[in-house]
């Protein structure tokens, strides 16, 4: 299995990998090391299957550079993109002929390629199958993927009324700014509502919702005493959480999310309404 190394692509191939591995077939899943950590946690506590011994994670690493020139180039690029937002027409006028033409961008054979691709699709007599989504099969296969231990989130939900808990998470590649975290915490505290809030920290250096660089292992701080004040009606999770199982729990009433592909598929299929905050390309 060779998915694009982001969770929106990893999960759709991780699930069939688990099913194939459960039939005593060896599966090798290639991924970036930082991205596969959550997938490995999904297998913890699984029993009566061949997944653990037959699903092999082939962790790839990406060379990084901490040179000042690279950082300067990155900052220069960011500065140009602000310029674009603030005065796009002026910038275009200044650059003039420096913009590439359509012909130089796509090359001389693009039209022929598109024509041949269309003819192949229309004349292809071979059967094609669209597979998935697989998460509903995973949900129903309790005899194969039953967990011997329950996550703290599920134990929390077990004690709550039906449709009484809001679930908040913004995926694995979105980092909220400290100000946004503070506002969310204040809203949750004042609402009096029951909640599960996954507060993720950066797996790698990435951009937050305000286009600010967040370094690896950057810490997200909650206001002092927040978790103590909401104890009993809300919990904060700082690492992986079993999202599909949380959404499928009868006590979950709503989902506050960034509208990632997997989150949308899982929430819709479980019948949980989404209060959406699309971020970046979502």
UniProtKB/TrEMBL annotation:
Keyword Zinc: no
A molecular-function term among this protein's GO annotations: UDP-glycosyltransferase activity
Name under which the protein is recorded: Glycosyltransferase N-terminal domain-containing protein
PANTHER family, per the entry: GLYCOSYLTRANSFERASE
Lineage of the species this protein comes from: Eukaryota, Viridiplantae, Streptophyta, Embryophyta, Tracheophyta
InterPro entries in alphabetical order: Glyco_transf_N, UDP_glucos_trans
One GO BP annotation of this record: glycoside biosynthetic process
Origin superkingdom: Eukaryota
Pfam short name (any one): Glyco_transf_N
Record-linked SUPFAM superfamilies: UDP-Glycosyltransferase/glycogen phosphorylase
UniProt keyword list: Glycosyltransferase, Transferase
Domain Glycosyltransferase N-terminal intervals: 1-67
Family, per entry: Belongs to the UDP-glycosyltransferase family.
Keyword DNA-binding among UniProt keywords: no
């Amino acid at each position: 299995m060779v998915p694009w190394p982001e969770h929106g692509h990893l999960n759709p191939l991780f699930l069939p990998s688990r099913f194939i591995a459960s039939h005593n077939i060896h599966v090798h899943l290639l991924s970036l090391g930082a991205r596969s950590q959550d997938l490995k946690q999904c297998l913890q506590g699984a029993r009566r299957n061949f997944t653990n011994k037959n699903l092999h994670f082939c962790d790839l690493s990406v060379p990084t550079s901490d040179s000042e020139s690279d950082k300067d180039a990155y900052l220069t690029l960011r500065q140009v993109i602000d310029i674009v937002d603030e005065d796009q027409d002026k910038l275009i006028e200044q650059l003039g002929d420096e913009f590439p033409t359509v012909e130089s961008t796509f090359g001389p054979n693009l039209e022929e390629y598109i024509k041949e691709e269309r003819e192949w699709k229309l004349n292809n007599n071979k059967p094609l199958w669209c597979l998935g989504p697989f998460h509903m099969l995973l949900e129903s296969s309790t005899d194969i993927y039953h967990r011997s231990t329950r996550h703290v989130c599920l134990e929390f939900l077990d004690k709550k009324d039906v449709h009484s808990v809001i679930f908040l998470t913004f995926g694995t590649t979105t980092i909220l700014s400290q100000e946004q975290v503070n506002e969310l915490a204040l809203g949750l505290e004042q609402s009096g509502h029951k909640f599960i809030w996954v507060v993720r920290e950066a797996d790698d250096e990435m951009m937050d919702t305000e286009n600010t660089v967040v370094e690896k292992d950057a810490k997200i701080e909650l206001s002092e005493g927040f978790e103590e004040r909401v104890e009993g009606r809300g919990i904060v999770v700082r690492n992986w959480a079993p999202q599909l199982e949380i959404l499928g729990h009868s006590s979950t009433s709503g989902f506050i999310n960034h509208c990632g592909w997997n989150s949308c598929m899982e929430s819709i299929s479980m019948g949980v309404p989404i209060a959406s905050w699309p971020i970046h390309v979502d």
